[in-house]
Structure formats: C-alpha cells, structure tokens
Amino acid sequence: MASSDITQAAARRRDPEMVELDEVIAQINDLFSGDQPDSSVRNVVTHIKDRLEESETLQQQAHNNTLAQFSASPDLQSEFVGAVIGAMKSHNDLSTQILNNTEISQRLMGELVARSLATAPTPVLALLAPRRPFGVWLGCCRSSKMTSVAHRK
C-alpha cells in the first residue's frame, strides 16, 4: 500500500462518517460485477448517500417515523432510484466534458500530475514505467503536444 493510501485510510478511520461509509462499501463491494476500483464505488455510493440526505421528503419522513416505517416508504425507493440515475448522469456528464474539452482535460491532468509529484514519495514515472514497457506517454499540461519519455530500468 502506498503511503498516500495509508494516510487516506488513517484519515477515514478517524472520521466516523467515513468509517460508516467504508463499512457500507465493504458490505456491497463484492456484489458488483467486474473489477471496480474502490474509489469508483466510493464516489457513486457517496453521491447516492448525499442525494438521499438532501431530500426534504426523506428528512421529514425519517424524523416522523420509526426505522421500519421509513424503510417501507415508497418515497425512499423513488428517491434512491433517482439518486442512482443522478450519479450515473453526473459521472457520465463530467467524463464526457473532460473527454470533449481539451482545456478541462489538460487542466485536470496538469493538476493531478502536479499534485501527485508534490505528494508522491516515488517519482511518478518510476511508478508508471513498469506498466508501459515501450515508454510512457504523458500529455504536456500547457500544450497539446505529446511527449514521449523513454523507459528506464
């Protein structure tokens, strides 16, 4: 486990809300088909949780009913489905914008690379190079040209 993963895991353990979220994710993660990264599952689950918590209808019902009554509410099912669809649309929309807008994609890539270089204990290229034996291709952050970096052993 990388040190940044350890730091993030430690931060989540200290935050009771994150501990709860980690427990939810651990309970359902194996139900998903395919190889889904924990970060993807966490993003979708967080989006759904946040939408449910923002629902005034659900807030009112949770306040005025027992857990059993609240869990049986047709509004809960409807709001849940709406939140799942919202997560799907949001992630699809954001991904599409990143792919279709070079300004967004270059800025995002530049920010991610800059931050990973600033916080990574190991140079980014050393981590990427073994996965790409014929060289690593990185997009220049401020240019549309691509730069090839030779693989070094």
The global form is elongated
- Counting helices, strands and paired strands, the structural category is mainly alpha
Q: Could you give the order of strands across the largest sheet? A: 1-2
Classify the beta-strand content into a percent band. Answer: 5-15%
Number of domains: 1
Order of helices and strands: HHHHHHHHEE
Q: Assign a percent range to the helix content.
A: 55-70%
Number of helices: 8
What distance separates the N and C termini? Answer: 22 Å
Ranges where pLDDT stays below 50 over 5 or more residues in a row are 129-153
Reported for the largest beta sheet, the result is: 2 strands, antiparallel
Based on CA atoms alone, the radius of gyration comes out at 20 Å
* Total count of strands: 2
How much is the average pLDDT? 75
Offer a few descriptive terms.
153 residues; mainly alpha; two-stranded antiparallel sheet; 8 helices; 2 strands; 69% helix; disordered C terminus
Quickly describe the structure:
69% of the residues lie in helices and 5% in strands.
Structural features, described:
The chain has 153 residues and is mostly helical. It has one domain (3-122). Helix content is 69%, strand content 5%. The chain contains eight helices and two strands. The protein has helices spanning 3-14, 16-28, 38-54, 56-64, 67-71, 74-100, 102-119, 124-128; strands spanning 136-139, 146-149. It has a two-stranded antiparallel sheet with strand order 1-2. Helix 1 crosses helix 2 (16-28), helix 3 packs across helix 6 (74-100) and helix 6 (74-100) packs across helix 7 (102-119). The two termini are 22 Å apart. The model is unreliable at 129-153 (pLDDT under 50).
